[in-house]
Amino acid sequence: MGVLDAWSWAREAEDVEYDVITCLNLLDRCDTPRSLLTQIHSRLAPSGTLVVALVLPFSPYVETGTMDNLPSEDMRVRGSTLEAQVNVLADEVFPSLGFSLVRWSRLPYLCEGDLDQAFYWLSDVVFILRKVKDDASQDETEVYGDKKQEKEFIGEEREVGREVDGVATYEESDDDCYEDALYEIKTDL
């Protein structure tokens, strides 16, 4: 087990398949995030697991290689709220690349600050994804098929503020706005 370079790892030992790959806080800083996810998909074992951590709301910024600091590939993440972007990632982006959502969690993420502020407090969303097919060009209906799905909240019970596309959102106060929300999607297998 080890940490591998984001750009050369897929070329090393091309016949090796991984049971688990982690991609932590990289997709919003990567010039070609969809290509990276396609590479990851090709190197995962059948039914392999991908762990993705991503700061939301999504705001890509590529530090090197571009004049405008924008990625050359669009992740196709839409929505202005964390909940809306989680839905787009879970229902459209990840399935279009051959992954199905197993669980996700919202966690606090502290990052280095600047001259104005010592550090920034952001929301990091961790997705646990399962490889569903060797062909990463499938559409959402192939990923989910006709299987009945139900989403179940895991953790302490809190009052649901509203539900957006099947994801519960909560009335937040300053005290609990960064507590994590963990969901599990159950499918009939």
UniProtKB/TrEMBL annotation:
Annotated organism of origin: Petrolisthes cinctipes
Alphabetized GO MF terms: protein-L-histidine N-pros-methyltransferase activity
InterPro entries on file: METL9 (IPR007884), SAM-dependent_MTases_sf (IPR029063)
Pfam families the record matches: DREV
Top-level taxon of the source organism: Eukaryota
Name assigned to this protein: Methyltransferase-like protein 9
Ranges in coiled-coil conformation: none
